[in-house]
Design a protein that fits this description.
Blueprint lengths: L18 E6 L10 H11 L1 E6 L3 H13 L3 E5 L18 H8 L4 E10 L8 H20 L4 E6 L2 H15 L5 E3 L6 H9 L2 E5 L10 H6 L5 E3 L21 H12 L3 H16 L4
Parallel strand pairs: 1-2, 2-3, 3-4, 4-5, 5-6, 6-7, 7-8
Helix pairs in contact: 4-5
This protein binds zinc ion.
């Protein structure tokens, strides 16, 4: 055995991480059949990702996967649309369960959380209020544990910014994070930046031009790249199941829209994600 490390003591191969997909759901059942292959492709492309919990169950599965892979991290929370599934309950953010999860060294943030007013923005007032309570619980929890927030907004950016501004006065620099799947105006992006939040863009920017203005106006150090896998695959994979390794296409497009060199953009986004989300591998 001399000179040969046993399998237990052999250090992991150090992979070179070049890209970050700050928001994916590799913990979802869509990957049950071939998850290890998807992760192998990530490693080959040099991609790290944060797996996002949307319920207690998927928060737990995100942490379990993060535990097994150096390039995977976890974010824990309850998606605002989950409240519709829990009739009559205003507050089912079970603190004890999340307390236990948040202590895990690979849990880097809280969310996704926020407000989802539906595709048409025609949600009823009671659900709106319930979502606001749940969102507030996430904000308090994140501040208490000094973690960034992963925000989900659908037709609700105005209310989210209003709530964050109020909470900012209470929590100061402890309140920070990222607005995922950003689809707002340059002004709304700026409001997020002023509150110490970044905004992340998905594969949608590869085939829709609605995001160009916000992207062009945003300083590079406030932009994050994401896939939101398994949803919205970028060109040239459009229509197929998305996966974190496709984040390279998102970064490429960010660079193109901003007229910058792709490698430099990848490096800057990674550097900022590592710093803001305390990613350690
Ligand atoms: Zn998501």
């Amino acid at each position: 055995m001399s000179g040969i490390a046993s399998r237990d003591t052999m250090p992991d191969m150090v992979m070179e991480i070049k890209y970050v997909d700050i928001h994916s759901h590799l913990n979802f059942p869509e990957y049950d059949a071939d998850r290890e292959e998807v992760i192998a492709r990530m490693k080959e492309a040099g991609v790290a990702t944060i797996l996002i919990g949307t319920s207690l169950e998927t928060s737990r599965s995100a942490v379990a996967l993060a535990e097994q892979h150096e390039n995977i991290f976890a974010c824990i929370g309850i998606h605002p649309t989950e409240i519709d599934k829990v009739t009559g309950m205003t507050a089912h953010f079970s603190r004890e369960n999340f307390e236990e999860l948040v202590k895990h060294p690979k849990v880097v943030g809280v969310g996704e959380c926020g407000l989802d007013y539906g595709r048409e923005g025609n949600i009823d007032e009671k659900s709106k209020e319930t979502q606001k309570i749940l969102f507030g619980q996430h904000i308090d929890f994140a501040a208490m544990h000094d973690k960034p927030l992963m925000i989900h907004a659908r037709n609700s950016t105005k209310d989210i910014l209003e709530i964050l501004a109020i909470k900012k006065e209470e929590y100061g620099e402890k309140l920070r994070g990222n607005a995922h799947f950003f689809s707002g105006t340059p002004e709304e992006a700026k409001a997020y930046f002023d509150l110490d939040f970044s905004v992340s863009f998905t594969g949608v920017i590869t085939f829709a031009r609605d995001y160009d203005a916000a992207l062009k106006a945003a300083p590079l150090d406030r932009i994050m790249s994401e896939t939101d896998s398994p949803f919205v695959a970028p060109e040239p994979h459009r229509g197929k199941r998305n996966e974190p390794s496709y984040v390279t296409e998102v970064v490429k497009k960010i660079a193109e829209i901003k007229g910058l060199e792709e490698g430099a953009v990848a490096q800057e986004i990674l550097k900022n994600a590592v710093a803001k989300w305390n990613l350690v591998w």
